[in-house]
Amino acid sequence: MSAHVLTLNAGSSSLKFGLFAAREDVLVVATGLLERIGESPRLKAEGANGMVFERHLSPEAAADHASALQTVLGLLKSEFPDDDISAVGHRVVHGGPNYSHPVAITRNLLTELERFEPFAPLHQPHNLAGVRSALQAFPDAVQVACFDTAFHRQHPFVNDVFALPREYYDRGVRRYGFHGLSYEYVSGELSRIAPHLHSGRVVIAHLGNGASMCGLLDGLPMGTRCGQLDPGVLLYLMDQEGMDAAAISDLLYKRSGLLGLSGISNDMRTLEAATTSEAEDAIAYFVFRIRRELGALAAVLGGLDALVFCGGIGENSHLIRERVCEGMGWIGIELDRIHNEENATVISTDLSRARVMVIPTDEEVVIARAALDLMVGVERRAAE
Ligand code: AMP
After folding, report:
1. 305 catalytic, yes or no?
2. Largest Cα–Cα distance in the chain?
3. How many CB atoms lie within 10 A of CB 326?
4. How far is the CA of 242 from the centre of ligand 1 (A)?
5. Residuewise pLDDT in 10s, the chain (384 residues)
6. Cα 228 to ligand 1 centre (Å)
7. Is residue 338 within 8 Å of 53, Cβ to Cβ?
8. Is 257 in the pocket of ligand 1 (CB under 6 A)?
9. Ligand 1 centroid, distance to 318 Cα (angstroms)
10. What CA–CA distances, in Å, run from 349 to 41, 324, 352?
């Protein structure tokens, strides 16, 4: 038996997982996704050994997160029978105002993290459901929570605060910042690939189904979420449309963003292929907001040395990258059209003052490394 780390990233109806061999660093063994939990589940997995698995499952095989985890574990056990899981790393979206690092999971921590569910209702309850299932499945393994908010905790007050009465800040109503695991991975990769840029004025744009840019964080529209909104709109929805909190959260979280504007889809590939003016409007608004945030971030940073794209859209859509960078010569951006179309690592020209890059993100590796670190720490203390 050899020591392995399992990573779990539980969404509302999905469970993303990774199995890593624990050496000095983590080595990927397999990654996969179980989608449509509670409906018509489908499991996809790929192994570094060439294993490819893709199958529709019976509804009972993934009726909830606990049975989904058992199904995933069944697959891993049959494909990799000698791999002993010694540590489990969990993506937990919200770590609240205090956690700036991954932490070992205890019953008390779980209770504390439940308090943040209202601040991340789309993710936190599902993340914690994954944690509970894994605690049952692996009572003896080291279990580690890795927070999307942790990366941003060193920000100064002005980055965190809304201009509400101070007591709300003290009660936790703050701008926390998300996608921290992705930013951690990408900034680590940037320091490896281009160390001179890493300490410079860098903007990272994570453009996926969820979207944010490191620094301003909450302005961008996403797949089905609206991004920044005038608070007057909320008052209108309550007063004039008689909507309660549940109806408003359904509207803002599930029916807005690219889906709401286009009326067709939250998937950028579908929108790029569509010919309707609504699809074009949705793309235009998405691009407009990214350009606005980029300009704002460059002002805050005092200029721009590098812009890094990541996430499903940032890594794959040369069209979006081209539209974001068009006419951005004023902050030193000059795109190389061919490199951009090839999704190359560096997509700016040699003469471009700011370097523009594409760095595929890997949140699972960040989680696995954190779990490995804690596991090694626990073993070291046990040996002392
Ligand atoms: P993520 O949440 O990072 O997995 O990103 C998912 C999103 O990336 C999808 O909803 C698509 O809109 C987008 N995406 C993936 N591949 C492409 C592509 N080749 N062109 C445009 N958008 C893409």
Report:
1. no
2. 67
3. 12
4. 35
5. 678 999 999 887 889 999 999 988 999 999 999 999 999 999 999 999 999 999 999 999 999 988 999 999 999 989 998 888 999 999 999 999 999 999 999 999 999 999 999 998 888 999 999 999 999 999 999 999 999 999 988 887 878 888 888 888 888 888 888 889 999 999 999 999 998 887 889 999 999 877 777 743 456 889 998 888 888 889 999 999 999 999 999 999 899 999 999 999 999 999 999 999 999 999 999 999 999 999 999 998 899 999 999 999 999 999 999 999 999 999 999 999 999 999 999 999 999 999 999 999 999 999 999 999 999 888 888 888
6. 21
7. no
8. no
9. 11
10. 45, 16, 5
Distances 303 to 6, 34, 90, 190, 276 between C-alpha atoms, Å: 40, 42, 36, 18, 37
Cβ-contact 287, 321 below 8 angstroms: no
Phi/psi for 334 (5° steps) reads -135, 115
The pick from 258, 266, 316 for probing ligand 1's pocket by mutation, whose C-beta has the most ligand atoms within 8 angstroms, reads 316
Report how far apart, in Å, the C-alpha atoms of 251 and of each of 48, 116, 146, 177, 260 are: 41, 21, 29, 22, 9
Which residue type is seen at 146?
C
